[in-house]
Design brief:
By secondary structure, the protein is an alpha+beta fold. Helix content is 58%, strand content 12%. The protein has 21 helices and 17 strands. Strands 2, 3, 4, 10, 11 and 12 form a six-stranded antiparallel beta sheet that branches. A four-stranded antiparallel beta sheet has the order 7-8-6-9, covered by helices on one side. It has a three-stranded mixed beta sheet with strand order 13-16-15.
């Protein structure tokens, strides 16, 4: 229920034991090797970074990912969402021969994929050539023929907007011995064949250029147009055959997809190991490792290191190192689901407070208040159970499922108090089935009839959470030797809160200023001006009053969103139920009500989470939370497709 205490490990071992040592650390999964400090990395000449093959491992990882992507596209697998994960021993999982076979398989798949891509590109080029030649299909002379000794043959185009008879007449008039034939007309151009005497070729071209003439680009083709079209068709058919052959080869390898997926898990460990290896320092026959290990795992680490000829030291991090110490949170079953909220915001700095146990009851309760419907709560509970049992959710997805489960329970409980079951679903459907019958679920209060009471309760709950945050801040300051700061910063406002409560309850001298209020004001003056000098004390006092009053008032009013979302969700559900009830037909009512409630549920599922997250991260965390912690990422076996089982 706190931030895991870390130990810094400095280790010197024989370089020849490097691979065995890293394999042991991978198995232990409890050491994060840190980047060497600049002093060491750039200091003594005898210290240098260990050689690693990170780039090579990442290239292999890319090959595997590409092969899986090809299979998913070419040979998609159906029904794989709930496929149980394979169970493997660590020894079998880290089998290098199996990884090499998978890499060879990936290379084969990727080579077929490249062949498919090459065929597709060639088909595109052939199709472009066909489209370029088809307008010239009426030309039956060999394309390499440029004319005779006395006659020139010119092939070219002019824009389709050109008046062909006028152009032909102009050419014959300008050149005399020239004839223009129209081979075809398209949407953009006329295709022309021009025969002219070589003595007047220049005059012919000048007359044609006046109409936008340009020579046809035949790419050094030989033979007739018909022969070239036939050749293109034959090449197209052969290319399509080759492409289909490559596609079938990929599909034939589809059943081996699991090998690639397991290999992706395997190569991930190789990448992690090589990346860690790169952070080691080498000094000839020895190597140097600097890292972090959870204090509770040091026994396991020392047992591992006993098998090596090495020297090491385990130390507590110095306070000035706290910002660099990686953070791991250790929470129980009821609070570990809050890790997804904390990690989404930012981890706490090492040496500060873990917010999860403090935040969990508020987050779950607030979510239930905003959602406030038994039907929605049941859907959330069932969805969470489905994710945990059927989908076997793990890691972050498991945290999400557990948070959904607890928030579902809270939503159901608040819904039972407010009498909400998909809005007023039961009231409406009973009214359709049995007209004149009035039915409503029992409720202590309802969003639409007790809005002010709910608003007041929301603000009270918000004030309680703000006070909780201030208490945590006070305790943390006292724990770190800053008790007086806690008294001036938080204690002052507690005294003022107490004074306001006394005044509201009529305790003390209500006609004048209560003693408690005077004490609070004196503390506010002293505390706000303790670090200011001269005229700055006045500004410090005014700023403290303004920022304190407006800040606390604004924070408390933010909790009005609890009432607002409860009210909006209830109204939207009731509106759709009423629309369905107007039909007077049970079937139509069910259709309209289900569609409306599905939309309302989806919107509130996300909306309540976002607003709840805002209350925690701004109003609550702002009182005590120190963010910016670095997540603890040890060298460990992390898998997506397989589960590592214990060896007997």
């Amino acid at each position: 229920m706190a931030i895991v205490k870390m130990k810094r490990i400095r280790l010197i071992a024989l370089a020849q034991d490097r691979d065995a040592l890293l394999a042991g650390l991978l198995h232990a999964g409890c050491v994060e090797v840190k980047e060497p400090s600049q002093t060491l990395a750039e200091g003594p000449d005898f210290l240098r970074r260990e050689d690693a093959r990170v780039a090579q491992a990442k290239d292999a990882q890319g090959e595997l990912k590409a092969a899986v992507t090809v299979l998913n596209h070419t040979a998609p697998q159906k029904g794989g969402l709930f496929t149980p994960r394979d169970q493997m021993t660590e020894k079998d999982f880290l089998d290098k021969a199996a990884l090499d076979r998978a890499l060879a398989l990936a290379e084969e798949i990727n080579s077929h994929a490249k062949a498919v891509s090459a065929c597709i590109a060639r088909e595109a080029r052939l199709e472009a050539d066909r489209l370029a030649l088809e307008p010239w299909s009426a030309y039956d002379a060999p394309l390499e023929l440029k004319g005779t000794k006395t006659t020139s043959v010119l092939l070219g185009t002019v824009p389709s907007a050109v008046d062909f008879p006028a152009m032909a007449g102009a050419v014959e008039e300008a050149a005399g011995a020239a004839v223009v034939h129209l081979l075809s007309t398209g949407r953009q151009q006329h295709c022309l064949e021009i025969l002219c005497h070589r003595s007047c070729e220049q005059e012919t071209l000048e007359a044609l250029r006046a109409y936008g003439f340009s020579f046809a680009q035949m790419k050094e083709l030989t033979g007739t147009v018909a022969e070239n079209l036939q050749r293109i068709q034959s090449e197209m058919e052969e290319t399509q055959r080759q492409r289909q052959q490559a596609v079938e080869a990929i599909r034939a390898l589809g059943p081996r997809r699991r090998e690639l997926q397991i290999a992706m898990d395997r190569i991930a460990q190789v990448v992690a190991t090589e990346s860690t290896k790169e952070r080691l320092l080498n000094a000839g026959p020895v190597l140097y490792l600097d890292g972090w290990v959870p204090e509770e795992r040091t026994g396991k680490l020392e047992q591992l290191l006993a098998a090596f000829d090495c020297a090491y030291a385990l130390e507590d991090p110095a306070p000035e190192e706290y910002s660099q110490v990686p953070v791991a949170l250790k929470n129980g079953k009821l609070t570990r689901c809050m890790n997804m909220v904390t990690e989404m915001y930012s981890l706490p700095v090492y040496g500060t407070v873990d917010p999860n146990p403090l935040m969990a009851p508020f987050f779950i309760l607030f979510y239930g208040i905003m959602m406030a419907d038994m039907g929605y709560g049941l859907l959330m509970i069932l969805g969470a159970i489905f994710m945990i049992k059927k989908m076997q959710a793990r890691g972050g997805m498991r945290n999400f499922a557990e948070l959904l489960f607890y928030c579902g329970i809270s939503t159901f409980f608040v819904g039972a108090i407010t009498g909400g079951f998909f809005g007023d679903f039961l009231t409406q459907i009973i009214g359709i089935i049995s007209p004149g019958t009035e039915f409503a679920l029992p409720a202590l209060f309802t969003p639409m009839n007790d809005t002010i009471a709910i608003l007041g309760g929301s603000l009270v709950l918000g004030f309680i959470q703000i006070i909780t945050g201030q208490i945590v801040s006070f305790v943390e300051k006292a724990r770190h030797g800053h008790l007086m700061d806690g008294i001036w910063d938080e204690g002052t406002w507690w005294v003022l809160y107490l004074a306001v409560i006394f005044l509201a309850l009529g305790i003390g001298n209500v006609g004048g200023y209560p003693v408690v209020l005077i004490i609070g004001l004196v503390m506010l003056v002293v505390g706000s001006t303790r670090n200011a000098k001269g005229f700055g004390k006045v500004g410090a006092f005014i700023g403290a009053v303004y920022n304190g009053v407006t800040g606390i008032f604004g924070d408390v009013m933010s909790y009005a969103r609890l009432m607002a979302l409860m009210l909006s969700g209830s109204i939207i559900a009731s509106v759709f139920n009423t629309l369905g009830g107007l039909t007077g037909n049970v079937i139509l009512f069910l259709v309209i009500s289900m569609l409306g409630n599905a939309l309302n549920f989806a919107l509130n599922l996300l909306g309540c989470y976002v607003h709840d997250l805002r209350l925690q991260c701004l109003e609550f965390f702002g009182k005590f939370y120190q963010d910016g912690g670095k997540p603890f990422r040890p060298l460990a076996i992390n898998t997506k497709y397989v589960d590592i089982k214990e060896e007997n």
